[in-house]
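Changelog-adjacent note: as of this version, every example in the card shows the full chain rather than a window. The one below runs 703 residues end to end.
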Amino acid sequence: MPLLTCEFREEGVREWHVTSDGVERRRNTDYEPALMVSGEGLDGLRDRLQSDPKVTSTRYDEWFTSLGSDTTSTVLRVGLERVTEVRTLADEIRRLYEIEEFHPGAFRLFNVDLAPQFRYCVETGTSPVPERDLRVLNLGIPEPTLRDRDVTALTVDGERLGDSPAGVLRALDERVRTVDPDVLCCSTARIIPFCHEQASEQDIDDFRLGRADGYEKLAGASTYESYGQIGHSPARFRVPGRAVVDESNSFLLDESGIPGLLDLVARSWRPLQETAWGSIGTILTAIQVRKALERDVLIPWNKWEPEQFKTVATLHEADRGGFTFAPDVGIHEDVVQIDFGSLYPNIMCEYNISPETVCCDCHDTEDVPGIGYSICDRDGFIPDVLRPIIDDRADIKAEIASTSDSDRRQTLKARSDALKWILVSCFGYQGYRNAKFGRIECHEAINAYAREILLDAKETLEAGGWRVVHGIVDSLWVQPVAGESQTPIPELCDRISERESIPLELEDRYDWICFVPLSDSEAGALTKYFGRVAGADELVTKGIEAVQRSTPPFVEALQRDLIWTLDREQSPEAICERLYRDIQTLESGNVDPRNLLIRKRVSKTVEAYDQRTQTVAALQRARDQGLPRHPGQDVEYLVVDDSRRSKERVQLAHESLGEYDTEFYRTLALRAGESVLRPLGWDRSDYRRYLRGTTTLSLEGFL
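Full-length structure tokens:
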């Protein structure tokens, strides 16, 4: 039976297995987590470890220690009493080379930093994939009321439970026992200790959120950096017999929902709770770890393979990204967008790009265009990982297109989105310094193939009577060349797809599309454009204010109104009049302050900021109210008086919002208007000059 969750206790591992109508509890008293050690002096190390009280057993095993290994190596398997002691012992072994008989680098350690439940599943061969629909209970509470320890604000599946603390807790306990959920989906995992503490204060002795008494804190809150972005990981908790999913700590839940998470559980064998809080890179690594262990390949603790020596000429050619065509700034009619489907993952599969195949020792060929790296013809590890994901997503997308069942379509869409993020991250992960199975030469080879593919596609499209108006990485925007006959786009896509063995698909047709210039020059911004989808009442918006997460709802709606005005009128004057009307509404004070809230992600502590910005004022205000925001968290606020430099210049989203700073929001509105006007050749000075001469607005400004 599949494992839902497990707890590591003194008396053994307590397992909770999903049955057809509930769960079954089991106990495993024989499990011992293990790490592996290779290197010189293993006999001496084994002698030392046998007297270590943490160690339960030692023995020699045969494993491959790298993806490219042709023969197995003898490694020392060290079994331990507790899963929490694996990392402790690894640190101790690493320090042993300070002792006289061992030298630095004498040992290499494997299978060290696996998440506890994931480790348990792959080491014992226990599947965590449920074979029935899981029962989910949603628990929510606003942060200010959690701070104030007001349990009456708690909601269960969106409903309040009562007005008295004891009544709410008893109702919650009854709901949990009646529903018997497999998953507690919480707005914040802090609900878990909070409810138990409140029950204790109310003398409710039999209260519990788990399938057994109590709860456990797994980790404290922490701040981390990933791909140059600061993130915040809240404290993590678990309860016996149920998976806890923290909405505030799960990017993948937000993107793909429970169905998407369960698809990733099946691929990675990370149980649901560990999958929910894992990053995309963490899940990709787990999928790779599982595949490597199936190949009898150990998982390195730290990557030790250095970048290959390269000549200056090779570095010049290799150290480049994907190909881009500078966008033709302005408005373009009758434009077609075509995309290569999962271009980088497909390149890895089609050209067998993997750490052990690129620049291998057994080939001296120049396979990679432009940089001349060789690629081995043995089956690569990375293609073996990615091909099932690519194929499954293609099948899921095909079923989405064919099904008329809305519930089924929603589930499939969630699974497709989850796989999309894995495929999006797999390329960048090859260049990530801490990737278990990454290598910079793979990253360079993928880019080299991508550049060649895009250039070849451009030539084919131009020969077919089309002009490329923009192109970036895996997408091309083309329009027919006046006076020339055009080969139909589907025919050209089929021709290119067949040649490259990578699908080139017609993504969209646009009645018109605008490419926006950079804010400080007339050159086109690579990822800023907007337009109208042909044959549909639908806009496409990328990179502009309307899709930026910090943009207030009022400004987002205003910019979309301006784009629709452009669609109707194709006139900068009409856009100016519409903008003028919205700014008048703003200046009259008739905008709901909640539609002016700004959301910013915090990159450092409030004390570390040098400038007195609105965000800093919001952070000071939050701190003084007992709601400190940590790096990686969001803060949401209304600007009420931007002339001040104190915390009074803003109000926080949960406060009773009052008047707003009209001039500040007017500037934001004008900025959004500029993004629509500049592709037409107008900037803010043109807008102001036009309105100075306007006494009577046309009807269009009021539509």
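Structural remarks: The chain has a mean pLDDT of 91.
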